[in-house]
Design brief:
Blueprint: E1 19-25, H1 29-41, E2 45-51, H2 54-63, E3 68-72, H3 80-90, E4 96-100, H4 105-114, E5 118-121, H5 128-195, H6 199-226, H7 235-250, E6 254-258, H8 267-288, E7 293-299, E8 303-310, H9 317-321, H10 326-337, E9 341-346, E10 352-359
Parallel strand pairs: 1-2, 1-3, 3-4, 4-5, 6-7
Antiparallel strand pairs: 7-8, 8-10, 9-10
Helix pairs in contact: 2-3, 5-6, 5-8, 5-10, 7-8, 8-10
């Protein structure tokens, strides 16, 4: 049990602070009452609840949201360490302050490392209100930052989707308009060659025919870069095609394996996975000096993972963070914008592994399974 001198508690400059829903982990009714009174004297309109067991705390956390948790350290059937762990399991970000008659410095340090916001000795209880105010402000700042990050990721996801739609639209227009024009020109050149009177004219028309074929090939390449037609066949076929194309273009074996023949994903998710795989392979070609590459795709009922592994030069963690290294950062942000994640594992001389995981919004269908 402890006592407080309410005259030493600094009152708020305003008449009343916001309502404070506070969960107090305390086995003493008297100490609980004094804590509530202390907060009231400080200007808070207190909505308190006392618990003293793990089960009661879990029920209280499930019952409603709380603004703060204040916990005694040592109780017969509970402790602040266990209470902090229960709070962390909920994923709720509210201040957790330990109030104890006696707590060792090593235990206090461990509690702060584990996520406690502060610890107050009961002999210095007037420190509680200032500590609580700081912790409430810090928690509000963290929540605002997370909300801003969530909005930025939502915007990033929307922009990527718009970009893919524009690429698809441009590729379609190129195919329909320029493709049609070039086809018409090819027929006209063929007719002119058949009806040309002199060898000099035929030679010039043959040259024009070759230039036209090069232009057609360039347009096909641009359309594939804008929107690879293989994506219409699904992400598995698209990534398998990337592996074959890499082997063909660079002469380096690129092996692809998957546990599912068909994986159904929303368009923005499959496009993101395709682009990140494309960027990863491009990095391998430019920097890795690899002799072999493996691409592994694994899907379960909740997510799809893609890993690109090479046996190349590798790099240190410092190189990932050097100025101008925006490729990996961009891939990570794109994954995060879709509630996924991307991890890079590398070391000099030991190759590189880039693993991407995206949530599976739609069901995965086995080969031959009705959709």
């Amino acid at each position: 049990m402890f006592s407080i001198d309410c005259h030493n508690v600094k009152k708020s400059e305003t008449s009343t602070l916001p309502s404070l829903r506070v969960l107090i982990v305390e086995d003493s009714y008297m100490d609980y009452g004094l804590l509530v009174r202390l907060l009231g004297v400080a200007g808070y309109t207190v909505d308190p609840k006392r618990v003293e067991t793990a089960e009661a705390m879990r029920e209280a956390l499930a019952e409603k949201s709380w603004d703060a948790v204040i916990s005694d350290h040592n109780m017969p059937d509970f402790s602040s360490t266990a209470a902090l762990q229960i709070l962390k399991e909920t994923g709720v970000d509210v201040p957790f302050i330990i109030v104890s008659g006696a707590i060792g410095e090593d235990i206090a340090v461990e509690a702060m490392i584990a996520g406690a916001d502060d610890y107050i000795l009961k002999s210095r209880l007037p420190r509680l209100v200032p500590a609580l105010r700081r912790s409430l402000a810090a928690a509000a700042t963290r929540r605002a930052e997370r909300a801003a990050q969530a909005r930025l990721r939502l915007l990033s996801s929307h922009l990527e989707l718009v970009k893919e739609m524009e690429r698809k639209s441009i590729a379609r227009e190129i195919h329909d308009d320029l493709g049609g024009l070039l086809t018409g020109m090819a027929f006209d050149l063929s007719w002119l060659r058949s009806n040309a009177a002199s060898d000099a004219v035929k030679d010039r028309l043959n040259s024009m025919q070759g230039t036209l074929m090069q232009a057609s090939a360039s347009i096909e390449h641009i359309m594939r870069e804008l929107r690879p037609p293989i994506l219409e066949l699904g992400i598995v076929a698209a990534v398998e095609w990337q592996a074959r194309e890499f082997s063909r273009r660079y002469g380096t074996p690129c092996h692809f394996t998957t546990n599912r023949e068909v994986i159904t994903m929303r368009e923005e998710y499959s496009a993101a996975m395709f682009r990140i795989c494309q960027e990863s392979l491009s990095n391998v070609a430019r920097h890795a000096g690899a002799k072999t590459i493996r691409i592994e795709m694994f899907a379960d009922n909740d997510s799809v993972a893609l890993e690109v592994i090479d046996d190349g030069f590798g790099f240190s963690d410092e190189n990932q963070l050097k100025a101008g290294s925006y490729g990996l950062l961009g891939m990570r942000e794109r994954a995060a914008s879709l509630d996924g994640w991307l991890e890079v594992s590398s070391a000099p001389g030991r190759g590189t592994s880039i693993m991407l995981s995206l949530p599976l919004i739609e069901r995965v269908f086995e080969v031959g399974e009705a959709s």
